[in-house]
Amino acid sequence: MHHFQYREGKLHAEEVGVRQLAEQYGTPLYIYSAATLRRHFEAFDSAFRGLDHLTCYSVKANSNVSLLRLLAQQGAGMDIVSGGELYRALKAGVAPEKIVYSGVGKKTHEIREALEAGILMFNVESTAELERINEVAGDMGKVAKVSFRINPDVDPKTHPYISTGMKKNKFGLDIEHSLKAYERARDMEFVEPVGMDCHIGSQLTTIEPFLEALDKLIAFYNQLGDMGVEIKFLDLGGGLGIRYNEEEPPHPEEFGKALTEKLKDLPLTVILEPGRVIAGNAGIMITEVVYTKQTPSKNFVIVDGAMNDLVRPALYDSYHRIAEVEERGRGVVDVDIVGPICESSDFLARDRDIPAVEQGELLAVFSAGAYGFTMSSNYNSRRRACELLVDGDKVTVARKRETYEDLIRGEI
After folding, report:
1. 192-228, pLDDT tens digit by residue?
2. Catalytic pick from 56, 198, 342, 386?
3. If you placed Cys at 66, which of 111, 202, 382, 398 could pair as Cys (CB 3.0 to 4.6 Å)?
4. Omega of the bond leading into 28 within 30 degrees of 0 (cis)
5. What is the pLDDT of the chain when averaged over all its residues?
């Protein structure tokens, strides 16, 4: 359920007309719904009410500080993967003891910053990283709490670019190497192993891969206990999918029930790291039709939103529903919806049936709240879009549109 609805043929973001927003703030334009964000967080978090748990929103999905602040007010912790995301989370008022630091390439200064902040724990991805954390913590006179990311070699049945839990992926340690890593961490002076971590992929549409991974983790948990390693946290990552087109992902309630059944008797705090399932359908991107173009083999709709604004279609060949902002009842045509960037991969949709549109009209790209603006760039020296957060009839400029001066800021 989201709060982007048509009223008398005109798209609204909660109580505000989308055309009105586009006219005031320009396009391309990202619009987020505060009510949807709250609803999605509550639906996910409440699904685990039978477990001692902490829901850490995955900042990489959408890292706007206004959005992070809203989720923090709902009680969310944060899953971060960089020093920049740590900075954003702290600026948004997130309690450091609710922050988990994931990611394969943590640099020394990032480890130091996280230790200074007092985060909950690091999800360690290699033995080299473990050694680095121990060294940095020792220099600071601190003890770093760590968890190891265990790669359970489970096929998540998702796009290969967002599969992360198989042997061939760069993430984490396999079971055998994890055992040795915990043994090493147990004996270190400035590290305390307190958790287990697993993240098998993104946009998962079935629970089975989670349950398969969980069975392996529980067996491993018992092995660690025999080694004298006391595990307090089980971080199951994120990855639960959303509906972009015809997918039928499990409801968080179903997901929570299945996990609760397996974990209810274990003395663990479960950490969840949802991102897309919270933010994905809480945002849309609005783009204006610049030109239409007919050729003997193809019809094109050229819009001002491009792959630099929303790269998922170009990167993953991902589907996003695209619809008129104002329904006009015209006949359907088969078109490619493309941007102005000088790349053949600059498209939002190919061979898509949509009602015929004309120059100056607006299109809405749905399910753009996750991995939309956060993956945008300045390619072709294009200014990044404005972001708005709508809460009822209140509109907050969550990020101003960049200026040309912003494009060259820092250049000499």
Report:
1. 999 999 877 667 777 787 888 888 888 889 999 998 9
2. 342
3. 398
4. yes
5. 92
